[in-house]
Amino acid sequence: MTPIVDSSEVKKIRCRLLEWYYQYRRNLPWRGESSPYRIWVSEVMLQQTQVTTVIPYYHRFLAKFADVWALAAAPLEEVLKVWEGLGYYARARNLHKAAIEIVKKYDGQLPQTYAELRRLPGFGDYTAGAVAAIAFGEAVPAIDGNAKRLLARLFAIKGDIQRGKAAQQLKQTAVTLVDPNHPGDWTQAMMELGATVCLPLSPRCSSCPIHDLCAAHLQGIEQELPIKSAKKDLPHYDVTAAVIRQGGKVLIAQRPLDGMLGGLWEFPGGKQKDGETLAECLRREIQEELGLEIEVGQPLVSIKHGYTHFKITLHAFYCRLLAGQPQALEVADWRWVALDEMDAFPFARSDLKIIAALKKQKTPARD
Q1: Is residue 194 a contact partner of residue 146, using CB atoms and an 8 Å limit?
Q2: Which of 83, 88, 103, 84 is nearest to 37 (CA)?
């Protein structure tokens, strides 16, 4: 494939963008960091998450797990608790898995090349490229959403950048542009320009150090790029959750480790099937997951929540145990816990809202 980058402009683009970055980059806690471990943690947290959200989590995570040895030695549940509320929990599970592998196979030292990093759990193209470039100075690209948008505009790539020829052009262009002398700074400069200037809806072209080299700007089509496939409407599901009370405590269950939100705790329940009422759904789910017979009582709260590929409305009900002893049939574990003990367990955001509703009720759990 013929390169779309004019070789005479590459040096100009690199120089201007790096000069801009050194002058205007934000003062973020991971900027200038030399620890590969800390760089890795920051890059994983920043995926699909705003910087302002990440900063407090980054500090808390490193305060708890200061190095890869501490992370590898920690129970997964402890890692998930520190991650609680940040979302995309597979990232936390993969961080933990990779830390264990790094300790076992690499004596606690992150591999220093893209190729080696790519073999670790959770290290996709972007993460491996970012850590290799920023932590180890390897001249490889790291193309996040900000960089994709910037490149699509800079070179007026008019096809769908997520597939086909346009995706290949974008990747090839990213490889060509990497500054071999400053790959880490170059990677961060691309991300920074995309995050603060080359914005999705209203790009600040007048503040861009390379606006006069930007093909989309020169053609007046910067607002139209990048082109992506139209998003499909997300499916919606009604999901039930049981607040089963007994002896001053509430029954919670741990989700299977290999499934969605694996390792997190929840109020047990599940997705409503066609033709079921919410109460019928909840009785079936509790029987299948825990082997219990329950009576579904009054609703507690309904919560709307969106995931990457679907949306849910979670309906929580007070329930009474009629028969049976809890069994881990389709759950990893179960516990009876008091309301004030729940802070010790990692929950998904939707279940945290159920806990908040219970606390707001201010009524003690009872049989």
Answers
A1: yes
A2: 103
Q: Does the pLDDT value for residue 232 go beyond 50?
A: yes
Neighbours of 195 (CB within 10 A): 19
Count other C-beta atoms under 10 Å from residue 18's C-beta. 18
Alpha carbon distance 170, 110 (integer Å): 28
User: Which two tokens mark 278?
Assistant: 């919410």
User: Residue 50 phi/psi, 5° resolution?
Assistant: -70, 150
Give the pLDDT confidence score for residue 8 in this predicted structure: 75
Q: Which secondary structure element, helix H or strand E, spans residue 40, and what is its range?
A: helix 36-46
Q: Reply yes or no: is the peptide bond before residue 209 cis, omega within 30 of 0.
A: no
| Per-residue model confidence (pLDDT) at position 308 | 86
Calculate mean pLDDT across residues 277-295: 98
As to burial, measured by CB atoms within 10 angstroms (0-12 exposed, 13-18 middle, 19+ buried), residue 172 is: middle
Write out the catalytic residue numbers. 43
Round the average pLDDT of the chain to a whole number and report it.
Answer: 94
Structure tokens at 167: 């995706």
Does residue 19 sit in the same domain as residue 152? Answer: yes
Position 5 confidence tier, pLDDT thresholds 50, 70, 90:
low
Regarding whether 189 and 58 lie in a shared domain, the answer is: yes
Backbone angles phi, psi at 187, to 5 degrees: -60, -45
In the predicted structure, residue 365 carries a pLDDT above the cut 60: no
> Does residue 1 lie within any of the structural domains?
no
Indicate whether 162 and 185 sit together in one domain.
yes
Helix (H) or strand (E) holding 322: strand 311-323
| Segment 355-364, tens digit of pLDDT | 999 999 865 4
**Domain residue limits at 309:** 236-361
pTM of the model: 0.91
**CA-based torsion, 14, 20, 22, 24: positive or negative:** negative
Q: DSSP H helical segments within 74-140, as ranges? A: 76-83, 89-106, 114-117, 125-136
Rounded to whole angstroms, the Cα distance separating 25 from 40 reads: 20
As a whole number, mean pLDDT of residues 275-297 equals: 98
